[in-house]
């Protein structure tokens, strides 16, 4: 495993950081608790020392699973990244969407990052994770009902108290990052980025490069699509959000698969899996610091953690770019 330091911190994260959204089951058609725990431990054994989670992932389930997976391990040997600002137990802030919990109960989710709420959320996360500090504490989504100043001052307070080491954001644009920076030193922004989702390259990547901010790329496998295992007609489990996402329309699966078939020879030549090629590509893009990769079980986790043994050459990157330029997806 290789490690990279987050900007403005002394926090080193594993280049492949374990993403624990699917581990919480919510929006992924449920979770196999023991498989998720085994996946985290298998990753750790291969040097994946950083784990990203959030209270909303399974409404506490993901954080709880992470807490159990790391129990007994030396705390200073891994880095815990979690979030605040998505409430399912308080109707306040920006209404986000309605959803179902893993047990089938209906919930309404709000983006809310008021000061008292953040302080409470932090205490709850610390308990579930079984730790007394969070390495990187990130707002999950912008909350337009609360001034950014209020949210960031709350995090600054938590840093002073030693409950949080560093502040990050997720899904912020450049202007929101600049505003947040007036109140706290930001280490990073966690944003969607994959071969087929490159919107951040226009504005956010240049901003982060100019202002020394790290980018944590989330869903680099485009939620499994870029592993090549998903074919037209693929049946998702009930409750799996992917069935409603445009990337998983049959026509887009087909077009993506054609593209994947074109880059397969590079993976074959290097004797790596397609998913590993995709992770390597992600980590070699300008401005990208970390790939946040989800895994449902040990097998996936091991494959993802082993992606980093080689580096892609400039020629290989150029060939992939060429094919990507020809790929057009339908909306
Ligand atoms: N801040 C935010 O708003 C935000 C949003 C999204 C994600 N994230 C973070 O980013 C992390 C990663 O993103 P993600 O989980 O959405 O997507 P991802 O990493 O692109 O894809 C993960 C999914 O792909 C499948 N998969 C993974 N490795 C595989 C392998 N080697 N072979 C075959 N299938 C494999 C698994 O699902 P199946 O087996 O079910 O196909 C897995 O759950 C999340 O866990 C979360 O921590 C943050």
What does this structure look like?
The chain has 331 residues and is α/β, with parallel strands linked by helices. It has one domain: TIM Barrel (Alpha-Beta Barrel). It has ten helices and 13 strands. The two termini are 37 Å apart. NADP nicotinamide-adenine-dinucleotide phosphate binds at residues 19-22, 52, 140, 170-171, 190, 218-224, 227, 229, 275, 292-296, 300, 303-304. Residues 19-22, 52, 140, 170-171, 190, 218-224, 227, 229, 275, 292-296, 300, 303-304 line the site of NADP nicotinamide-adenine-dinucleotide phosphate.
Task: Present the secondary structure layout.
Elements: E1 3-5, E2 12-14, E3 16-19, H1 33-45, E4 50-52, H2 61-70, E5 79-84, E6 86-87, E7 94-100, E8 106-111, H3 115-129, E9 134-139, H4 148-160, E10 164-170, H5 174-180, E11 186-192, H6 204-210, E12 214-218, H7 250-270, H8 274-283, E13 288-294, H9 298-305, H10 314-326
Parallel strand pairs: 3-4, 3-13, 4-5, 5-9, 9-10, 10-11, 11-12, 12-13
Antiparallel strand pairs: 1-2, 6-8, 7-8
The chain binds NADP nicotinamide-adenine-dinucleotide phosphate.
The site of NADP nicotinamide-adenine-dinucleotide phosphate has 27 residues, from strand 13 and helix 9.
Return Rg in Å: 19 Å
In sequence order, what are the helices and strands, one letter per element? EEEHEHEEEEHEHEHEHEHHEHH
- The CATH topology label is TIM Barrel
CATH H level, superfamily name: NADP-dependent oxidoreductase domain
Low-confidence stretches: none
Q: How is the main sheet built? A: 8 strands, parallel, barrel
- Supply the CATH architecture: Alpha-Beta Barrel
As a percent range, the share of helical residues equals 25-40%
């Amino acid at each position: 495993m290789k490690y990279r330091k987050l900007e403005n911190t002394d926090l080193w994260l594993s280049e492949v950081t374990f993403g624990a959204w699917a581990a919480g089951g919510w929006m992924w058609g449920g979770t196999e608790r023991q498989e998720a725990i085994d996946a985290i431990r298998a990753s750790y054994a291969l040097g994946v020392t950083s784990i990203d989670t959030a209270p909303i992932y399974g409404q506490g389930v993901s954080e709880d699973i992470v807490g159990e997976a790391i129990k007994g391990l030396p705390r200073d040997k891994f880095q815990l990244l979690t979030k605040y600002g998505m409430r399912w137990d308080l109707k306040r802030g920006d209404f986000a969407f309605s959803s179902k919990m893993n047990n089938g109960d209906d919930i309404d989710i709000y983006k809310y990052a008021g000061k008292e709420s953040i302080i409470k959320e932090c205490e709850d996360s610390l308990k579930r994770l079984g730790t007394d500090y969070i390495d990187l504490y990130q707002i999950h989504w912008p909350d337009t009902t609360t001034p950014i100043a209020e949210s960031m001052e709350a995090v600054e307070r938590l840093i002073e108290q030693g409950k949080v080491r560093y502040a990050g954001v997720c899904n912020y644009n450049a202007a929101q990052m600049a505003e947040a920076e007036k109140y706290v030193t930001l280490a990073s922004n966690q944003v969607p980025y994959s071969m087929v989702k490159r919107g951040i390259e226009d504005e956010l990547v240049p901003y982060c490069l100019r202002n020394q901010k790290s980018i944590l790329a989330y869903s680099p496998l485009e939620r499994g699509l870029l592993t090549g295992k998903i074919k037209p007609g693929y049946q998702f489990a009930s409750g799996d959000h992917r069935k409603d996402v445009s990337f998983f329309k049959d026509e887009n699966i087909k077009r993506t698969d054609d593209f994947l078939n074109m880059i397969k020879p590079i993976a074959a030549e290097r004797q790596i899996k397609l998913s590993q090629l995709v992770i390597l590509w992600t980590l070699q893009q300008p401005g990208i610091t970390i790939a946040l990769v989800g895994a449902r079980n040990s097998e996936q986790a091991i494959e993802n953690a082993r992606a980093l043994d080689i580096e892609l050459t400039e020629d290989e990157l150029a060939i992939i770019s060429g094919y990507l330029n020809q790929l057009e997806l339908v909306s």
